Amino acid sequence: MLACHYGRTGYNVLRSLNSVGAKVFVIRDVRAISMHYSLRSKESCVVPQLDDADPKAIADIINGLHHKHGIDLVIGADVESQNLILRMHD
């Protein structure tokens, strides 16, 4: 699971993960336009503002994808996404 607030940073991380054979699911900010056109993710979930998102709501999305696909790892592609992951660690 890749969370990204900024499209370009997220896209570069997505490309890197794909190059090692990872199946990547994305939660992205609606403003991450370059991620919208990528065919490299298995599934993409769009939220209005990832940096201000409710950690519980994002955790629910991640848990739903985990039950459906078996997510092994959650990665924040940028500082805002990593901050969100830290806020939902409980």
Offer a few descriptive terms:
90 residues; alpha/beta; four-stranded parallel sheet; 4 strands; 46% helix
Structure explained in plain terms:
The protein has 90 residues and is an alpha/beta fold. Helices cover 46% and strands 17% of the residues. It has four helices and four strands, in the order βαβαβαβα. A four-stranded parallel sheet has the order 3-2-1-4, sandwiched between helices.
Query: End-to-end distance, in Å?
Result: 18 Å
The pLDDT mean sits at: 86
Rounded to an integer in angstroms, the radius of gyration calculated over CA atoms is 12 Å
Number of separate helices: 4
Residue runs with pLDDT of under 50 for 5 or more positions: none
Oligomer: single chain
Give a short account of the largest sheet: 4 strands, parallel
Summarize the structure.
The protein is an alpha/beta fold. Helix content is 46%, strand content 17%. Strands 3-2-1-4 form a four-stranded parallel beta sheet, with helices on both faces.
